[in-house]
Structure formats: structure tokens, C-alpha cells
Design brief:
Elements: H1 4-9, H2 11-28, E1 35-39, H3 61-74, E2 80-84, E3 87-88, H4 98-107, E4 111-115, E5 119-120, E6 123-124, H5 125-137, E7 142-145, E8 152-153, H6 154-164, E9 171-175, H7 194-197, H8 207-213
Parallel strand pairs: 1-2, 2-7, 3-6, 4-9
Antiparallel strand pairs: 5-8
Helix pairs in contact: 2-3
The structure holds NADP nicotinamide-adenine-dinucleotide phosphate (NAP).
The site of NADP nicotinamide-adenine-dinucleotide phosphate has 9 residues, from strand 1.
């Protein structure tokens, strides 16, 4: 279960799917490499620019399930946990990447609100996949952060995407986490990916540079 609100409203199912199923799969894969994709949201976001040695402090049910699953996976020294941040790109259904969800909302004429004080390290999913593959190929087990090289606020991400989809007449406001009512959110879960970067044949991109170099239909 990848959507935090769904996990928050059904914690028992979230634990079953995210923790128990992962434990079962890790057990079935006990003698072979196994990669579990985790999230930057394992951190409480008070610090930012987190490395693999920083202490986790999950604020939501989703994040708690990911921390519990990580611990199960990392108990096997053959296995790997890759924490990533917001992933975007082109999905087969056209609605899975955060960029696609934003574009689709603008296409429907929705006005969106983006926090100016919530920070992530967004990345194109192709790079996450390539990094997973290279780490796997080099038999790199253990914990790695794999995310974009640039820390961006959600408002900055919104502005970058609006610039890309001017023809949709994108409407959005910028708000503050301080005015947000709901389950706690981590303000700055930007990730330091140096440990993984040292193993990779390519540079993890800054989202701004990547967008400048690639056509609108690719993100
Ligand atoms: N997207 C992000 O920005 C992001 C950021 C950080 C971490 N992550 C992590 O990355 C991983 C993938 O996320 P995503 O955004 O690609 O999620 P997603 O679009 O919701 O895809 C989830 C995948 O899990 C499968 N799945 C869900 N429930 C299942 C079940 N009960 N049995 C078997 N398969 C099931 C889905 O199958 P179907 O294709 O059949 O629906 C789908 O392939 C997750 O572990 C998530 O926590 C994602």
C-alpha cells in the first residue's frame, strides 16, 4: 500500500500488505538477492539531507510499515533496501507518477495547492530503476538512498511542472505545512545518495536539469 492516507485509514491492512507480505517474500528469497523499495518518509523530516546512518522516526502508519519491513529485509545480509523519494515518469496507466497526477488534475481544470515548506528529492523513476539494477549487478547488499540530487519544495516542483504544461493553463496556490490539518507530515525528507552514487556508472540527476534536457511528453 503506497498511499499514506490509505494506510492511515486501514493500519491493519497496511501492516499485512507492507510488512507481513514483505517478510514472506524475503523469507522465500532467503538465499538470493532481494531488493525492497522503501521511502524517505521513514524520517521525521526535522533535519533533511539524510544519510543511511541517520535515525528513522516514522510519523505515519505508511512510514511505520516501511520501517518495520526494512528491518525484516536487512536482517538478511544478502538483501538490499533502497530508500527513494518522489518518483515520476511515464507509467502504463498514465496516473502513477506524481507528475502524471498533477498534470491530470490540471487537465481536469483543478486548482492545486503545493506546500512551500515541504522538501523532497524528486527523481525520474528510470534512474531509480537503473540504480537498483547496477547495485544488484554489483551485489551491493544493505541500505542505500537513491534519489534526485536536488532538494526541492513541493511548490518548486509545482512551478517546474506548470512551466512544462503552460498549454493546460495550470492553476495552483502555494500553502504552508503550518496551516495543514491532518496526519503529521515530515517537512524535509531530502536524501543524501552519496553512498549509492559511489557505486553507479551515471550521475543521479537534479530534477531541474533533467526537465530542461528532456521533452514534455517524457515527464
Ligand atoms: N512513487 C513514489 O514516489 C515512491 C516514493 C518512495 C517509495 N516508494 C515505494 O516504491 C514502491 C512502489 O511504489 P509505486 O509508487 O510504484 O506504487 P504503486 O504505483 O501503488 O504500485 C504498487 C505495486 O504493488 C503492487 N501491489 C499492490 N498490492 C499488492 C498485493 N496485495 N499483491 C501483489 N502486488 C500488489 C501493485 O500491483 P498492480 O500493478 O497489479 O496494481 C503495483 O505493481 C513502494 O514500495 C513504495 O513504498 C514509492
Amino acid at each position: 500500500m503506497t498511499k499514506p492516507p490509505d494506510c492511515q485509514s486501514n493500519p491493519a491492512l497496511a501492516r499485512r500488505v507492507n510488512v507481513e507480505t514483505t517478510a514472506l517474500l524475503a523469507e522465500l528469497a532467503a538465499n538470493i538477492p532481494f531488493i525492497f523499495i522503501s521511502t524517505d518518509l521513514v524520517f521525521d523530516g526535522r533535519q533533511g539531507n539524510y544519510t543511511e546512518t541517520n535515525t528513522v522516526n516514522p510519523l505515519s502508519v505508511y512510514a511505520e510499515t516501511k520501517v518495520a519491513a526494512e528491518q525484516t529485509v536487512l536482517a538478511n545480509p544478502r538483501h538490499t533496501v533502497i530508500r527513494t523519494s518522489l518518483n515520476g515518469g511515464v507509467s502504463p496507466t498514465g496516473d502513477r507518477g506524481f507528475n502524471e497526477q498533477i498534470r491530470n488534475a490540471w487537465q481536469r481544470g483543478q486548482n492545486l495547492s503545493f506546500f512551500k515548506d515541504e522538501f523532497r528529492s524528486p527523481i525520474h523513476a528510470e534512474y531509480t530503476s537503473r540504480a537498483c539494477w547496477e547495485l544488484f549487478s554489483k551485489r551491493q547488499a544493505g541500505l542505500f538512498h537513491v534519489a534526485g540530487r536536488e532538494k526541492l519544495s513541493r511548490a518548486s516542483v509545482g512551478e517546474l511542472l506548470a512551466h512544462r504544461h503552460v498549454h493546460l493553463n495550470p492553476q495552483f496556490d502555494t500553502g504552508s505545512l503550518k496551516d495543514y490539518v491532518g496526519a503529521p507530515r515530515s517537512p524535509d525528507t531530502s536524501l543524501d545518495s552519496s553512498k549509492a552514487q559511489a557505486q553507479l556508472s551515471f550521475q543521479l540527476p537534479r530534477l531541474t536539469d533533467w526537465l530542461l534536457e528532456n521533452p514534455a511528453e517524457s515527464f
